[in-house]
Amino acid sequence: MATKGKGKEKNDGRKLVAQHKKARHDYHILDTYECGLVLTGTEVKSLRQGRASLVDGFVQIDRGEAWLHNVHIPEYAQGTWTNHSARRKRKLLLHRVEIDKLEAKSQDSGHTIVPLSLYFKDGRAKVEIALAKGKKEWDKRQTLREQQDRREAERTMSAIRRRQRA
């Protein structure tokens, strides 16, 4: 399948709508899951316009069902009185085994479930959620330091290669 559009599509039929980049900085990602979303018509239309924010989002398991809270999908501009509420809770579609596993693991102290990305896959809205453990401040600094060291090493190696070619 050829890549089309504004560079947001991948070869696997995914069209990225929103990503929570800071989640990987703030949390240790332990396990990821792909799940469907129960949406209204105006929410889907708003998502197709590429409008959403996952920044404050989290997943809560209530009575055996997974719910996505605080994800902001703005109202559809051409919507009428049937428009949706921007920050309503939305049901996630997961298998029972996955919900039970997430519920058991999220009960541990320091563990939470956060959304990582929101996308369309073969025409259906999907959200990638992750079981995560919060990082301490020193963990964040250590991660940044490792990234910076890696970048510096790559720069040094590319400079050496350029000198060898010349």
TrEMBL record:
GO terms for biological process: trans-translation; trans-translation-dependent protein tagging. GO terms for cellular component: cytosol. Residues 136-155 have a biased composition (Basic and acidic residues). The keyword RNA-binding applies. It comes from the Bacteria. The keyword Cell wall biogenesis/degradation does not apply. GO terms for molecular function: RNA binding. CDD domains: SmpB. It is found in: Cytoplasm. Residues 136-166 are annotated as: Disordered. Keywords: Cytoplasm, RNA-binding. Pfam families: SmpB (PF01668). Belongs to the SmpB family. Required for rescue of stalled ribosomes mediated by trans-translation. Binds to transfer-messenger RNA (tmRNA), required for stable association of tmRNA with ribosomes. tmRNA and SmpB together mimic tRNA shape, replacing the anticodon stem-loop with SmpB. tmRNA is encoded by the ssrA gene; the 2 termini fold to resemble tRNA(Ala) and it encodes a 'tag peptide', a short internal open reading frame. During trans-translation Ala-aminoacylated tmRNA acts like a tRNA, entering the A-site of stalled ribosomes, displacing the stalled mRNA. NCBIfam families: PRK05422.1, smpB. This is SsrA-binding protein. It comes from Streptomyces noursei (Streptomyces albulus). The lineage of its organism: Bacteria, Bacillati, Actinomycetota, Actinomycetes, Kitasatosporales.
